[in-house]
Amino acid sequence: MLLDLYTQIASVPLGYNHPALIKAASSKEYITASVNRPAMGLMPPANLRKQLDETLMSVCPKGLDSVVTMMCGTCSVENAFKAAFMAYRKRERGSEEFTQEELESCMHNAEPGAPKLSILSFYGGFHGRTFAALTCTRSKPIHKIDVPQFDWPAAQFPKIHYPFSKHEKENQEAIKKSLQDVQAKINEWKHKAPVAAVIVEPIQSEGGDNHAPKEFFVKLQKLCKKNGVYFIVDEVQTGCGTTGTFWDHEKWGLQEGPDFMTFSKKMLTGGFYAKKDLLPSVGFRIFNTWMGEPSKLVLLKAVLDVVRQEKLVQNAADTGSYLLSELEKIAAGKLSNLRGAGLLIAFDVGESASQRDKLVHQLLQRGIITGACGANTLRLRPSMILTKKHVDLFLDHMNQTLKSI
Predict the structure, then answer these.
(1) Which one is catalytic: 185, 265, 266, 301?
(2) Which InterPro entries does the annotation name (predicted)?
(3) Are the CB atoms for 171 and 158 separated by under 8 Å?
(4) CA dihedral 180, 177, 197, 375 (to 10 degrees)
(5) What confidence tens digit (pLDDT) does each residue in 156-209 have?
(6) What does the DSSP assignment read for 37-100?
(7) 23, 151, 226, 289: which one is catalytic?
(8) In angstroms, what CA-CA distances link 35 with 43, 44, 46, 264, 294?
(9) 204: which of 41, 134, 210, 292 fits an S-S bond (Cβ 3.0–4.6 Å)?
(10) Which of the residues 4, 181, 209, 234 is marked catalytic?
(11) Please, which residues have CB within 8 angstroms of residue 64's CB and are 6 or more apart in sequence?
């Protein structure tokens, strides 16, 4: 028997073989969508609007009013970038009408049709592995080595000390330095490839589970707005209630929603939300054959029904708080920098990756699946059905393992 606290890299919302998902996968609607998969960008099924209203639009983030479906997190990010560039150029030219020069020059990858614009990301961030997304991914060299990338800027993510409450002065300084770096990079790139958008994860997951206080994100959005730069929030890993709110950025108290927000993983399908006026009105500009997969919307409806009926967002908050508080009791001298939001919990092990990897391996020998990220961080990514019973089982094995090493 295994206790999976990593769940296919944070992608399993309700554990394995959940009855509601088995029932949904046995339905005529699911079978029809799977066997006769439509090219949704060109020939969407008749019930697509109803499916979207019952699923993705039912959890649409505040301030956003449109959704574009995709297959995975990477293509969600890639196409959110494209939408941001298109919106930026529409604003510059004052309309969505193209000149003949633009139409001809883009076929040669040249200006003005192929403008020199950029996306600003943060060191430590992970946004995917297609070309633009990979350019903005700055978590591990192995993801990027040997692959040509765009010359786009990156800023320092705040180097935060944990817990927040005990390091307010240092963390305020870290926030200040990060925002100054963002502004400096926007200024620097104005004359070579103006920054059209900034992308940020609420929690830098692959980069080491790096958190930042909500104040940082509020100020970052204001900085973007002041500079005419679009604000993209990447909730691929933090979305679907696992942090104790359905979308993690809900905790920030933004005056208005982000301009774009990407999702995937526990949502079972990919895509991005946007403000409608920022999306192109001309067809085929954001397009691929599948544009998502309607069978996944059948499963997602089942997931969202269970999440609501069983109050799993609140469960994530409560169980995560219990897990974090219990870990603190056994951490002394063994684990450091405990941090978490709901069920997204992490801590550092020793001073090196080898020490962390040894703990991950020994837990696996006991049937406990965990994950590694960053330099020496162990991260937990359980399903939302995790209970205190599962937590106690994990803590018992963790305690015994720590004593043995």
Answers:
(1) 265
(2) Aminotrans_3 (IPR005814), PyrdxlP-dep_Trfase (IPR015424), PyrdxlP-dep_Trfase_major (IPR015421), PyrdxlP-dep_Trfase_small (IPR015422)
(3) yes
(4) 160
(5) 999 999 999 999 999 999 999 999 999 999 999 999 999 999 999 999 999 999
(6) ---TTTS--TTHHHHHHHTGGGGPPTT--EEEEESSHHHHHHHHHHHHHHHHHHHHHTSS---H
(7) 289
(8) 15, 15, 16, 23, 11
(9) 210
(10) 234
(11) 257, 258, 261, 273, 274, 275
Cα 115 from Cα 140, distance rounded (Å): 29
Beta carbons of 135 and 142 less than 8 angstroms apart:
no
| 267's tokens | 């949502």
Contact by Cβ (8 Å): 258, 231: yes
Active-site annotation holds for 192: no
The answer to whether residue 226 is catalytic is no
Verify whether residue 209 is a known catalytic residue. Answer: no
Closest CA to 294 of 34, 8, 6: 34
The span from the CA of 370 to the CA of 380, in Å, is 6
Fill in the amino acid letter for 252: W
Residue type, 303: V
Q: Which residues pair with 373 in a beta bridge?
A: 377
Least confident of 27-31, 333-337, 363-367, 368-372: 333-337
Q: Which tokens sit at 47?
A: 């019930």
What SS3 class is residue 199?
A: strand
